[in-house]
Specification:
The protein is of the alpha+beta class. The N terminus is likely disordered. It has an 11-stranded mixed β-barrel. The longest helix has 30 residues. The chain is 15% helix and 59% strand. It has a single domain, classed as Porin.
Length: 246
C-alpha cells in the first residue's frame, strides 16, 4: 500500500514539475526578441459567479484597463455566460460580451478605435491532485468587429494552489498561475499569449480578492510586442445567496 502511495506521489510531483517548467518555458520564449512596453498598465476586474440550480450557473465579468498606471482608462469589456454542468468536473458554457478600445490616455473622450461584439462556446474541465487545482478552458469565439467576422480558439491552462490550507476555504491564501493561447482562424498559429502570476485571499464564503501581474504578448504579421499589467480582481460567488433565497 505504501509503495503504491509513494509511486502516486512521485507521479503527481512529476506532473506538477512538468506543468511549472512548461509555464516558465512559454513565458520566457514569448519575451524573446519582443518590442516591450516597459510602462506598467493598470487592469481592474470584477467577477460575479454562482450556481442558480444544481446543474445551471451564471457568470458576469467587467474589466477596465489603462496602458499606463495613470488611471486614464482606454479599454473596457463586459461579459456574461450561462453554464451547464455536464459532469462533476466538466462544464459547458455559452457567453457573449462587448469590447471597447479607445486611444491610450483619452479616458473614453475620443472616438473608439475598435468596438467588438463576441459570442463563444466553452468547455471547462477541472482536475485536482492533492491540493493542486488545475483548470483547462477551451473557448471558441465568434467575433463581430464592424463589418468583419472572425473566429478564434483560445486555450487556457490554470492552477490554483492553496498555501495555508489544503482546500479553498475561508481565510485561505493561494497562488494563481495561468497561461492562455489565442489562436485565430487565419494568420499566425498563435496571435497572443497571456501569462498570469498572482496571489489571492478568500475573505469569506462569498468574496475573494486577487492581485497579480499579466504579461500580454501580441504577435502581428511582422512584429511582436509585449506589455505588463498589474491586475486587481474582486470575485464574488452568489451561490449561497441563491440557495438561501430558494
Amino acid at each position: 500500500m505504501f509503495a503504491n502511495y509513494y509511486t502516486d506521489m512521485n507521479y503527481k510531483g512529476r506532473l506538477f514539475t512538468t506543468f511549472i517548467l512548461t509555464i516558465i518555458f512559454i513565458s520566457n520564449s514569448t519575451n524573446c526578441q519582443a518590442q516591450e512596453d516597459h510602462s506598467l498598465g493598470n487592469w481592474n476586474s470584477l467577477l460575479l459567479k454562482g450556481k442558480i440550480s444544481p446543474k445551471w450557473s451564471l457568470l458576469c465579468e467587467g474589466h477596465i484597463r489603462s496602458s499606463n498606471f495613470d488611471l486614464k482608462y482606454n479599454y473596457y469589456e463586459i461579459k456574461s455566460a450561462i453554464g451547464y454542468s455536464i459532469t462533476k468536473n466538466l462544464t459547458g458554457l455559452f457567453g457573449t460580451g462587448f469590447f471597447n478600445t479607445d486611444e491610450p490616455g483619452g479616458f473614453f473622450r475620443t472616438p473608439a478605435l475598435q468596438q467588438e461584439l463576441r459570442t463563444w462556446l466553452e468547455l471547462n474541465l477541472k482536475q485536482t491532485f492533492i491540493r493542486f487545482n488545475f483548470e483547462h478552458r477551451a473557448r471558441l469565439e465568434q467575433r463581430f468587429i464592424g463589418d468583419n467576422y472572425k473566429n478564434r480558439l483560445k486555450y487556457r491552462l490554470g492552477l490554483l494552489l492553496p498555501i495555508n490550507n489544503t482546500e479553498m476555504i475561508q481565510g485561505t491564501l493561494y497562488l494563481a498561475i495561468s497561461d492562455e493561447l489565442f489562436m485565430p482562424q487565419h494568420g499566425p498559429v498563435v496571435e497572443k499569449n497571456r501569462f498570469y502570476l498572482g496571489m489571492g485571499y478568500k475573505m469569506n464564503q462569498n468574496t475573494t480578492l486577487q492581485l497579480g501581474c499579466i504579461n500580454d504578448n501580441d504577435y502581428k504579421s511582422n512584429s511582436h510586442t509585449a506589455k505588463n499589467y498589474l491586475q486587481l480582481m474582486l470575485i464574488y460567488d452568489f451561490t449561497k445567496l441563491v440557495k438561501k433565497g430558494g
